[in-house]
Design goal:
Layout (H helix, E strand, L loop, with lengths): L3 H107 L1
C-alpha cells in the first residue's frame, strides 16, 4: 500500500496544477475583458467630448448669425424711425408754411 500513496499525491498535484492553470487562464481572460471595457469606455468618452464640442461650435455659429440679424434689425429700425421723423418734420414745415400763407391771405381780406 505504500506505492498507492505517491500515485494519489501525483493525481492531486496534477489536478491542482490543472486548476491553477485554469484559474490563471480565467484571470487573464478577465484582465483582457477589463482592458477591452476600459478602452471602449475611453472611446465613448472621447466620442461624447467630440460630440459636445461640435454641438458647442454649432451653437456658437447660430448665436453669431442671430446676433448679426438682430443688429441688422436694430439698425434698420433706427433708420426707419429717422426717416419717419424726417417725413413728419417736413410735413410740419409744409403745414406751417400753409398756415402762414392762409393767415396772410385772411389778413389781406380783412384789411
Amino acid at each position: 500500500m505504500v506505492g498507492v500513496k505517491p500515485v494519489v499525491d501525483n493525481d492531486r498535484l496534477h489536478i491542482a496544477q490543472i486548476e491553477v492553470r485554469h484559474l490563471q487562464n480565467t484571470v487573464q481572460a478577465l484582465r483582457d475583458e477589463l482592458e477591452t471595457m476600459r478602452s471602449a469606455k475611453g472611446d465613448a468618452v472621447q466620442a461624447a467630448v467630440a460630440s459636445g464640442s461640435n454641438e458647442a461650435r454649432q451653437l456658437q455659429a447660430t448665436i453669431e448669425v442671430l446676433r448679426a440679424e438682430l443688429e441688422k434689425t436694430v439698425f434698420r429700425h433706427a433708420d426707419e424711425i429717422e426717416q419717419a421723423r424726417h417725413v413728419a418734420h417736413e410735413e410740419m414745415r409744409q403745414l406751417r408754411e400753409t398756415i402762414a400763407v392762409l393767415r396772410e391771405d385772411l389778413e389781406k381780406k380783412r384789411a
